[in-house]
Prior knowledge:
- The protein has 428 residues and is of the alpha/beta class.
- The protein folds into two domains: 4-240 and 351-420, Amidase signature (AS) enzymes; 275-343.
- 38% of the residues lie in helices and 14% in strands.
- The protein has helices at residues 4-12, 18-35, 44-59, 103-110, 153-160, 177-183, 217-228, 247-250, 254-263, 275-300, 308-319, 322-342, 395-407, and strands at 39-42, 71-75, 114-119, 131-132, 136-137, 139-140, 143-147, 166-171, 186-188, 209-214, 241-244, 269-270, 348-352, 372-375, 385-390.
- A hairpin with a 2-residue loop joins strand 6 and strand 7.
- Helix 7 (217-228) packs antiparallel against helix 13 (395-407) and helix 10 crosses helix 11 (308-319).
- The two termini are 14 Å apart.
Amino acid sequence: MNSAITIASAVRDGHITAVEVTDTCLAALENAGRSLVAVTRLLGDRARHEAGAVDAAIAAGRDPGPLAGVPYGVKDLFDVEGLPTTAGSSRYADAAPAAGNAETITRLREAGAVLVATFSMDEFALGFATINARHGTTRNPHDPDRLAGGSSGGSAAVVAAELLPFSLGSDTNGSVRVPASLTGIYGLKPTHEALPMGGAFPFADSFDDVGPFALSVADMQCVWNVLTGTAVVASDDEIRLARLGGRFRDNGDPDQIAAIDRIAPDAPPFDLPDIARAVGRLPDHRSRRRRAASRRARARCDAMAFAPATRDRLLAGALLPETPNAAAQEFCARYKQMIVELIADHDVLLAPATPCVAPMIAAPRILIDAALAVPLRRPGRMPLGLQLKGRPGDEATLFRFAATLAKKGLIGASSPAEAFQGKVAWRK
Length: 428
């Protein structure tokens, strides 16, 4: 598939209409997308209406926006006007339709992008595998017997299969970075609250963030510009690197460690103090959302409607008393400030994104210890990714460094198996 930037240019220049792009994309999603067990709803009528508006703007001599006619999809926890927001749960399949669109969808539509589908996820984003009791298990485009990761696995799989140039997921504790690493594409966990969460079903407010997936750094940056309403300012400043050590390095795949050492051979090792305690505090800090969801479940008197794994997690959260949760919040606030001060002299910290390639569906287990997740170049092998961690509010440096690595051929989206590639001729 062509990039988002290329598609938008072709539509603006009249080489192809937005409606033609949309029809081709919908057909590809209907065929290959279903095989991935990634698509939950195709939005054909809506998509053709949005594409028609783009073509009408061009015919009238108006600028349709930087993403003119570019198709995309969203994780099934974003409000889409007129549809129930399911958050991956059967409980909400027949909920009242959303009265409006999520803020991110509104911004993308104003930029000319065309929403074509919603994608599968772990129920309430409680997982790393996209195993969904209602829709099934999302497949990895590189090997359909393997997981795509989660909880934004549907959004990642469709982009990795080259059926869309970009999509939206959400990341609380790795839900963008994990599937990006396992499917061989780019995925961004932005600075907290840098992107609007309005109209996105919440899991843990203090950690939730909207996160895009893309096949290239350039497309990721273009989507970022649209969603933030700002342009990334170019800079020639030296990028100061560090390699994260400790449990990050100890649990990495040998290929990831070798790549990090090759990218930054002279960068100092950098250990984050008290990281085990910080990771241990995370479940307490997230329990507020789980307890809230559990209270909603009890209020409806139908807890058995939740998938078993979700129900167990919600019950565990409900049983946690408030005292340790309050202590966890206090610790996290102090720890965040300490980390910001510690990394002040570094622009990018390098670390593995996941400690292994995608697990087999028959043995759905992945150990996650804990940015911008970038795919390593691994021709002929399952994808693996690195994390480029930056200072709060400095996504521009991450994009610039990732673009440098891509030019050197060290990173880049992995092409999937032929069965899922969705060869699409966007130009006539």
